[in-house]
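sorry for the late reply, my laptop died twice this morning and i had to redo everyting from scratch. anyway the thing you sent over, i finally got around to it. pasting the sequence first so we're on the same page, its 103 residues, then the predicted structure underneath. double check i copied it right bc i was rushing
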Amino acid sequence: MGNEKRTRARKARSRRVDKKAIEEGRRRRASTGEGKSQEIEGTISAVLAGTMFKVKLQNGHELLAHISGKMRKRFIRLVVGDRVKLEVSPYDIDKARITYRLG
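ok and here's the structure:
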């Protein structure tokens, strides 16, 4: 009986520590602002294989973009000339994710 109580107490203590660590990590990520993607608009200039697209921005730059999962799930079709909303990765500014079709 004594060992069983100690084991239960040890598990409860470790759960509390885990919850604190998880919450601390969430707070730290939220305060640094890392991982935030930038939202911009562009026009599809070319359709590539594998749901990849070349998207031209208003400033003349071209990005390689892929369709987001929800757009893929809903079978939203994109063609050359469509205006789209993009999320640009902060780590590689030449790649983006298409999140919305504007028309």
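The first helix runs from residue 2 to 32.
thats about all i looked at so far, will dig more tmrw
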